[in-house]
Fold CNH domain-containing protein.
Amino acid sequence: MVHSAYDAVELVAGVPGRIEAVASHAGKLLVAASDSEGFLRGSDCSLRIYSSPASSSEGGGEIRRDGPYALERHEQRFWRRPPLAMEVSTTRDLLLSLSEWVALHRLPGLETVAVVSNKTKGANVFAWDDRRGLLAVGRQKRLTVFRLDSGREFVEVKEFGVPDILKSMAWCGDNICLGIRREYMIINSMTGALTEVFSSGRIAPPLVVPLPTGELLLGKDNIGVFVDQNGKLIQDGRIIWSDTPASVVIHRPYAVARLPRHVEIRSLRAPNALVQTVVLRDVQKLVQTDNCILAAVANSVHGLLPVPIGAQIVQLTASGEFEEALALCKLLPPEDSNLRAAKESSIHIRYGHFLFDSGSYEEAMEQFSDSHVDITYVLSLYPSIVLPQTHIIGEHDKLLDMHELARESSDAADEMESYSLQLHESDDKSPLEVKKMSHNALVALVKYLQKKRSGIIERATAEVTEEVVSGAVHHSLILSEPYKPKKPNKKRAQTHTSSIAREMATVLDTSLLQALILTGQSSGATELLKGLNYCDLKICEEFLKERSEYMVLLELYRSNEMHREALQLLNQLVEESKSEMENTDFNKKFNPQMIIEYLRPLCRSDPMLVLESSLYVLERNPSETIELFLSENVPADLVNSYLKQHAPNLQSTYLELMLSMSESGINPNLQNELVQLYLSEVLDWYKILKEEGSWTEKIYSPTRKKLISTLESNSGYNTDLLLKRLPQDALFEERAILYGKMNQHLRALSLYVHKLQMPERAVAYCDRVYEEGAQQPSKSNIYFNLLQIYLNPRKAEKEFEQKIIPVASQYPGIHKSSSAKFKGSRTGKKVVEIEGADDIRFSPSGTDSGRSDGDGDDASDGGPIMLNEALELLSQRWDRINGAQALRLLPRDTKLQDLVSFLEPLLRNSSEHLRNYLVIKNLIFRANLQVKDDLYKRRQAVVKIDGNSMCSLCNKRIANSAFAIYPNGQTLVHFVCFRESQQIKAVRGANSLKRR
């Protein structure tokens, strides 16, 4: 980085004698020079004041370029000795100088204000803090701090001892940095605490240079090190000079060093590059002023006048030093803020193009972002990105600034055009390099767009919200107006809903989606579409189809509520994934479960669409699909009716899976629907077998098994309707289950025993009915009905044939048979007496029996009986059957030996109950005797009353008065006192109740 930051101009020439010090005030030069004769004698030194003719006429306060400076005033023998240092306080119009001592003169008249002769005589260095008016003076091994009081005199504040003679010093806040011999130290001006910093080097003496920020630049041979006010090193803070500087001055943004052969100018910004070299040999003094740097060379004074910032920016931009140019833009005057912003934007754009051409794409995007250029400008660098048609060209103000600056500093449009040509001319690069460059450039674009997205989307959303609110307000105003006849409103034509903010958001999201896909970030594209986005549907759809990005395309359809298109695509992809294709990724990505997951959020918003789209997965994944319907509460009636109309083969699958998955079951209508479906299929199957002549009641198809299971486990179907559909000569098991649901137990058992010839099923039926009615206080004796069928088969069969036509369903308990009178043998009578109240729960009647058919006299009427089954039932269920009634049903020729397995446990159980009752009775009687004995003992208590017995209430002797004794047997009271105390308690209790 080399450019012209300063112009060297000779201001004063031919100064007689040697120049000892230089300063400036109000545009004039103050030169301390030793007279030629005085110099030889080593004594007197004069002060010469030079001014420019132009500054004298205009009264300017800055060093000017025009014309040489002429001598205006000459104060001979102003100092007795040549001054070691001289400094001007611009804010106070004072001249501080150190010759024999420190003197203070008023400017411009040079009147002497104060002289500190006693404490500063022989001093060699001083440091002035103009803001606080503090003066630090180094004399030999002493450091003295003075304060300028009322602008008239110096008052000593502190004095400290230092290790050695001071060579250099500078204020840094409340501290003072000292250069002592070969090291630097920090001393606190209030406490005098010393802190070592580091050594100053081997060649040059210590050099302390204060910075405008309050930090310090400390010299170490040819290196300048930056430290803070406490002497701690600042990271990346060092300037490497080409030679060891004799002195350094700071003139933002540069550091200017006085070297033996030239004046070197370097930047204060890291890496502190060389800016300019001014060839001035043997410079004696280098002094900073408000607007320039003065350099004293022999008997002349040169001014290093800064080149205007704008010109420097142009130089740096042209030479490609964009960062330095941007740094200089910060130094433009505040009143030129618009110009500064425009220049910065132009530099950022040029810098962005430079970085983009160099392959530093991310850094280029940062520059474009800082330039606040429109995103369409950046997207024009990417021909592969397809942009939607919009009405916007860009942000007009920013583009105007960009074009103005492009005209000021080389043409950025030419660079853009040249880059486009480079992008198309890829013959010199290999395909791999071109692909890598394109990928890296697109990655940088993704980051750039993501950084810009939040602000653009926020503006677009705010615009939409504002339109919605204004529309709602307008609608409310229309509703609030009084009724008027409707007339066509020509003024309120439908306006275009697009806007700059939304169009910009559309451009951004559409481009971002394409860039994400082109860089292989499909997951990022999916996440973009899941949130609020403004992607152009047509462009994105074509783009995703061309690259087979079906997952992203599905999310695009979902975000635009194009669910039919998404589901059609999903069905197509699932079908293709099942076929043999070279791309095996289909098997991993697409499966019917994806359709189910897509349908899940639509179940509540659009159930009809869910039903239309679920046929595919219902055939292949019925359980998952039904689970979807159940978990998302899709109306079951709606699902059933839809399947009945469009997919009747899936209706039973849906209903049976719904029945198995739903804990609370399904409503009666659906239960009846399912049973009717099963029955229809079974009847068709029955007709086929009957025509073939292979029908038997013990043949079970899968559907018949489902029908029987459903009939047994559910009760929400219409039994009458089902009975009407059943054939009279077949399906007796189904008929038996339906009779059981109607509490027609006798008919059901007759079917199991006589038609189906399954006594074990009849017993199981009785067990189920008995266990289901265990909680009912009075239930029919179902086992007694079974005994009737076993022991009166002809009568039961005859009754069944007469009533084979189904009747209306009856509820249990409507018909109650009268109690049968048993006329049995002596044994039956004894069994009745033994059982007593223990078997009250058994009732001899059933809901479908008019009266008892078990008279012993008629037991053998009508054909063979099933005695063995009856005896087996009695032996297995003896504890559930009324023994007396069962004995009355048995034929009279039944052997007693055959009844042992029935009577033995029955009699044992009855005897055990009797013994338990007797034990309980004796225990109760014993407890009663114990209570009576305890009462008798308590009534035998003896109380001895003598002449010393006292009443516990009134504390008087009882003597011959009537007395009472409390239950503890020790507390004696007068009977009168006891009665009064009881009355008092009664009154208090009544009062307390009243208060409550």
Q: What stands out?
A: DSSP finds 36 helices and 32 strands in the chain.
